[in-house]
Specification:
binds flavin-adenine dinucleotide; Butyryl-CoA Dehydrogenase, subunit A, domain 2; alpha+beta
Length: 292
């Protein structure tokens, strides 16, 4: 069975998910198709901006940032984007930062961060995990102390994906050491490129890649306007972030990017795969399909 799966997949077979939509989907489809039409002839950056401005980066979020799209509209949008071969910007970590800012940020923060995030001008990273705080995130010990005009942050984060390419980071820090651990946290926006005292150190993996980083804060100043919500709201905001992260990490590729990369690699093996390799590949693809 595994060998058959491997053979079919190498030959291009993929699971295509579809759903029967109600009749009103056709009017929605006509409107979406008309709106997407001008994007087809735009060059790459202009196309991304057009799609972002029209709400296609995050259709499920409220307008003007998204399209306030219900479930049927989201499905129609996905189908129409695919058939027009249009790809809105993937904000990656921004996919869970932006909904948090919409839910809890103030007007100035929305105006400052959302347009750039939606079109890809602002790249985000997530400064949550620490050496002593993974699953028990609320046990984190990075401290933020109030100073004139802002806060000073001291501590260490770990497993920070994309820290070296990010412009801004969302960061949880402890602002009240006396409060119960979930109540003493606050949620900050960190200027990754321009903050003095911030040290990013890549963590080299066995593959040679360095996906993750350690990030050290040595008295990093964060202005008041980069606190989201009120001091002590950090855990509430983190839950919004993590809930959106969970949904966002599932995607519509049936094998995931890792599965597709493995297939590309398999196709480069001179003479093709032997029976044992096909069995292993088929087994991995079955797992990828089940999880995709
Ligand atoms: C691909 C990837 C990207 C990541 N990117 C980021 C990022 O950008 N920013 C960021 O902040 N973090 C990031 N992380 C970190 C991730 O969120 C943490 O790894 C996660 O919070 C778990 O923490 P830990 O690795 O310290 O594991 P631990 O918390 O030490 O857990 C280790 C094991 O113990 C188990 N365990 C823990 N507590 C209990 C308990 N009470 N009872 C029973 N079992 C328990 C866990 O299930 C797990 O199997 C990333 C992780 C991965 C895998």
């Amino acid at each position: 069975m595994e060998r058959r799966v491997a053979g079919l997949t190498l030959d291009g077979t993929r699971r295509v998910l579809s759903i029967d939509l109600p009749p009103e989907a056709e009017q929605i489809r006509a409107d979406i198709r008309a709106e997407l039409e001008p994007a087809k002839t735009l060059e790459s950056a202009a196309q991304t901006s057009y799609l972002a401005e029209k709400g296609y980066t995050t259709p499920h979020l409220p307008a003007p940032w998204g399209k306030t799209a219900d479930a049927v509209t989201q499905l129609v949008i996905a189908e129409e984007l695919r058939s027009a071969e249009l790809k809105p910007h993937d904000m990656i970590i921004g996919n869970w930062v932006v909904p948090t800012l919409i839910a809890h940020g103030n007007e100035d923060q929305l105006a400052r961060f959302l347009p750039g995030s939606l079109c890809g001008d602002i790249v985000w990273c997530q400064l949550f995990s620490e050496p002593g705080a993974g699953s028990d995130l609320a046990g984190l010990s990075t401290k933020a102390v109030k100073v004139d005009g802002g806060w000073k942050l001291q501590g260490q984060k770990v497993w920070t994906s994309m820290a070296r390419v990010a412009d801004w980071g969302i960061c949880l820090a402890r602002t009240d050491a006396d409060a119960p651990k979930h109540k003493g946290l606050s949620y900050f926006l960190i200027d990754i490129r321009n903050s003095e005292g911030l040290d990013i150190r890549p963590l080299r993996e066995i593959t040679g890649d360095a996906l993750f980083n350690e990030v050290f804060f040595d008295d990093v100043f964060v202005p008041d306007e980069c606190l989201v919500g009120e001091p002590g709201d950090g855990w509430k905001l983190a839950r919004t972030t993590l809930a959106n992260e969970r949904v966002s990490l599932s995607n519509d590729s049936s094998l995931g990017s890792g599965g597709e990369a493995l297939l590309k690699l398999a196709a480069t093996i001179p003479g093709g795969l032997d029976a044992e390799q096909l069995t292993v590949l088929g087994s991995v693809l079955c797992d990828a399909q089940s999880g995709g």
